[in-house]
Amino acid sequence: AIVHVVEIDPVVIKASIQAMGFPSHSTKNASSGSLNSMDPLDQVLWGGLHERLSLYEADAEGFVVKRAAEMSSPFYDLVFVDAYDGDDLFPRKLWNADGPFLKALATILHPDHGTVVVNLHADTDSLTKCTSPLFHPLLPMGRHVYQVCKAYKQVLEEDSGAGGSVLSFSVSSPWVQNISLVICRGFKATTMTENRSLILNTLLSSSQDVENLLKLPFPCIQYLKNGFLLIDSL
Predict the structure, then answer these.
(1) What strands, in cross-sheet order, belong to the sheet with 53-57?
(2) pLDDT of residue 38
């Protein structure tokens, strides 16, 4: 896999290199290429994987719009969106259905199986005082989260190559008050409700593989069982 990371804050990029060991040679300028010379230590620590990583110092909207305009770039199979401003708010321009970001994202996402995952803060007043991550079976979907879901589903569905159909679901993490929105192209909308159990069981059966591959220190299965919500109509 080839992975592109876009980060607007140079302080975050610097911290990822100095404190978290991100390969410095993988940091790039969106227009001029690599910003740093090759560090022999990167080869030792990353074993060549760093050659497939690119961390761009850029604004997400500008980066995605530029990629869409190039058209020669390959489609993205998976896009993960995790962006918050200084006020800890998900920027409006990244979920505006009429804005350039979502329209460009729909263009560069694979039309038949492209998937977008959006990390959102749960906008609900019912905060739990329990320290267990499994206390709440499901976080309520507040107005803001609902609007973001609707915008992503609308735009990605309009430009889908798979018969104009997408699968939308969310998984909540009550302990950290987060909701992950997932939009997948390539599913028939008419069968989503009927196959809710099938979809959930498919996710559950794959969770162990994900845990082993990423060496996660916690199980995914309980989050899926307790926090899965199929968004079949918005």
Answers:
(1) 3-7, 53-57, 27-29, 33-34
(2) 62
Q: Where do the structural domains in the chain lie, given as residue ranges?
A: 1-58, 75-230
Which residues lie closer than 8 Å to 167 by C-beta, 6 or more apart? 182, 183, 184, 186, 187, 192, 199
Listed in sequence order, the residues at least 6 apart from 232 whose beta carbon sits closer than 8 Å to its beta carbon are: 168, 189, 192, 193
Q: What is the rounded distance in angstroms from the CA atom of residue 21 to the CA atom of residue 45?
A: 9
pLDDT tens digit string along 92-122? 999 999 999 999 999 999 988 899 999 987 6
**25/133 Cα distance (integer angstroms):** 37
**185-234 pLDDT, tens per residue?**
886 655 555 567 788 888 888 888 888 888 888 888 887 877 888 876 55
CA–CA separation, 230 and 167 (whole Å): 8
- Residue identified by tokens 């060496």 is 215
**Region for 76 from its dihedrals, namely left if φ exceeds 0, alpha if ψ lies in -120 to 50, beta otherwise:** beta
Q: What is the pLDDT of residues 21-40, one digit of tens each?
A: 888 878 877 665 555 556 67
Q: How far is CA 48 from CA 27, 34, 45, 92, in A?
A: 15, 16, 9, 37
User: How far apart are the C-alpha atoms of 33 and 36, rounded to whole Å?
Assistant: 9
